């Protein structure tokens, strides 16, 4: 448990945790064909952790060919579902057994607090493998209600080769949301982790091998987005790309598919999620805490972060005082310290990007209520205070654009109608939240919010049983739940004449 293990314990583990830095293709570890590498950096210190293989087109070709071969040979796709279930349950158990080292790898690679990686990211990843393992042998196909002289079956078949391209904010968990259902359904997978955070994906490959997932079925190609990511997007033998990342990159994947083989593309993209507190909020303390955690958890690097907060006038001043008090407790600290509620921003470029939004907020006339400064600079790391702006207009950049950092834009509203209008005034539609004691209003507003996820009297809660994804420019398709299996299977109709 985190509470009983202190900073010294985690620092010592970080020093000795084994690192994998090569690509994992067809059951073997290999450097990039051209020997290229990229540095992965610890955001808490700015120090290089390791040079990792930077896969290029030739490596992606090898990985896709291995995945295709494995699929065609049926060494995984052709197994009884109970056998795939057994291997994935073993993988879930291995992730759980190795949770401390996976948590440390995630924390040093990405900058998020050890309390979060150990308490959430890694156990949720393990649960995801176990859940799809348990699900896959309980799903039946269909028989259509045709005339008696016909038997028409509707069966689900795996697609073939799935490329999973994932971001750096929840590296192992985002990968697992795709890898687990794709493998459970019988596909082969090529995973490309983000260049900021490749270490847990590579460790996952080792664990998958130990779990008995055959060579070629699961491959990991670390590399740069514009090289390895693009090669997967354009590859003629990839059947599906399951992507999580920014909306700009998501749009590229749609273009890659159009330029190549019209592969299926599922997109989990950006967000600018509205979080609404009505003046009949049943519990202002809980709402203030949820609003603070909803934007400052994971340094604000969360696609569903409640980055636009709308507070009704009747409670505005009282609520803001409570919010400020909660936010002030979430100061950034060493990510390896179990007491840290916030860690470091993932890299220098992202820190600069977030700071440019803080600057824009000031320039455009937003009122800075809290934070706004870089801190802990002596560490060499990339830390920013929790930052709250009050916004006089919805036209401000900090209200309209995804910042992906610990910056909250607060707006006061008067009526329900106004709150819904402002909430929906965004190109994104991922998360949303509202606090009210009025049941009719809860239903009414939930229906009207243009979002894939609505939280009522809570924020960011959930588990693997419910779909996760967005509308508008937040993407298409859903991760998690049984619905995620739709992304990795196709329907086949077989019409059999019995005449
Ligand atoms: P990103 O789009 O820069 O990168 C995501 C992945 O795409 C990485 O693996 C990257 O290497 C790859 N990539 C980058 N450029 C590419 C290109 N030209 N061609 C092919 N691949 C390319 O996103 P990021 O900065 O890693 O992550 C932050 C974004 O992810 C935010 O917008 C956030 O909202 C989004 N996100 C969404 C969800 C969701 O479920 N909707 C979850 C987490 C993060």
From TrEMBL:
**Would the keyword Coiled coil turn up in this protein's UniProt record?**
no
Query: Which residues constitute the catalytic centre?
Result: 268
Q: Which InterPro entries match?
A: Ald_DH/histidinol_DH, Ald_DH_C, Ald_DH_CS_CYS, Ald_DH_CS_GLU, Ald_DH_N, Aldehyde_DH_dom
Supply the Pfam families for this chain.
Aldedh (PF00171)
* Tagged with keyword Oxidoreductase: yes
What PROSITE patterns does the record tag this protein with? ALDEHYDE_DEHYDR_CYS, ALDEHYDE_DEHYDR_GLU
Question: Which residues are in the Aldehyde dehydrogenase domain?
Answer: 29-493
Keywords, alphabetical: Oxidoreductase
Name the SUPFAM superfamilies on file. Answer: ALDH-like
Family per UniProt?
A: Belongs to the aldehyde dehydrogenase family.
- This protein is called what? Aldehyde dehydrogenase PuuC
- Name the species this protein comes from: Cupriavidus malaysiensis
């Amino acid at each position: 448990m985190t509470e009983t293990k202190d900073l010294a314990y985690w620092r010592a583990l970080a020093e000795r945790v084994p690192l994998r830095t090569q690509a994992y293709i067809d059951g073997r570890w290999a450097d990039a064909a051209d020997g290229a590498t990229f540095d992965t950096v610890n955001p808490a210190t700015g120090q290089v952790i390791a040079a990792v293989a930077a896969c290029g087109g030739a490596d992606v070709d090898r990985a896709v060919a291995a995945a295709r071969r494995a699929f065609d040979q049926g060494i995984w796709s052709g197994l009884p579902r109970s056998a795939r279930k057994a291997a994935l349950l073993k993988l879930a158990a291995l992730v759980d057994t190795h949770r401390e080292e996976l948590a440390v790898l995630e924390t040093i690679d990405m900058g998020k607090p050890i309390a979060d990686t150990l308490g959430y990211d890694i156990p949720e990843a393990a649960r995801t493998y176990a859940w799809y393992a348990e699900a896959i042998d309980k799903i039946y196909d269909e028989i259509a209600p045709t005339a008696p002289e016909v038997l028409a079956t509707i069966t689900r078949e795996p697609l073939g080769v799935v490329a999973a391209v994932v971001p750096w904010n929840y590296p192992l968990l985002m990968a697992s949301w795709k890898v687990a259902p794709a493998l459970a359904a019988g596909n082969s997978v090529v995973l490309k982790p983000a260049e900021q955070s490749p270490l847990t994906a590579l460790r996952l490959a080792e664990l998958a091998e130990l779990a008995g997932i055959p060579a070629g079925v699961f491959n990991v190609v670390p590399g740069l987005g514009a090289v390895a990511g693009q090669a997967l997007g354009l590859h003629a033998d990839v059947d599906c790309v399951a992507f999580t990342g920014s909306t700009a990159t998501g749009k590229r994947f749609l273009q890659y598919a159009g330029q190549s083989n019209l592969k299926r593309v599922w997109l989990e993209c950006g967000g600018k999620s509205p979080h609404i507190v009505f003046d009949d909020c049943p519990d202002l303390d809980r709402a203030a805490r949820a609003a603070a955690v909803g934007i400052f958890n994971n340094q604000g690097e969360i696609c569903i972060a409640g980055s636009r907060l709308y507070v009704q006038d009747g409670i505005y001043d009282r609520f803001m005082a409570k919010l400020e008090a909660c936010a002030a407790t979430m100061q950034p600290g060493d990510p390896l310290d179990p007491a840290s509620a916030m860690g470091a921003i993932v890299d220098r470029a992202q820190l600069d990007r977030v700071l440019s939004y803080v600057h824009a907020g000031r320039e455009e006339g937003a009122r800075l209520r809290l934070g706004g400064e870089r801190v802990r600079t002596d560490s060499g790391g990339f830390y920013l205070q929790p930052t709250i702006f009050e916004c006089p207009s919805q036209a401000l950049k900090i209200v309209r654009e995804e910042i992906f950092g610990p910056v909250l834009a607060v707006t006061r509203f008067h009526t329900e109608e106004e709150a819904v209008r402002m909430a929906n005034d965004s190109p994104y539609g991922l998360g949303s939240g509202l606090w009210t004691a009025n049941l009719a209003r809860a239903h009414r507003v939930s229906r009207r919010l243009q979002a894939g996820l609505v939280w009522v009297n809570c924020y960011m809660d959930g588990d693997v049983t419910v779909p996760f994804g967005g509308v508008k420019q937040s993407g298409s398709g859903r991760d998690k739940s049984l619905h995620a299996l739709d992304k990795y299977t196709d329907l086949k109709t077989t019409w059999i004449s019995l005449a």
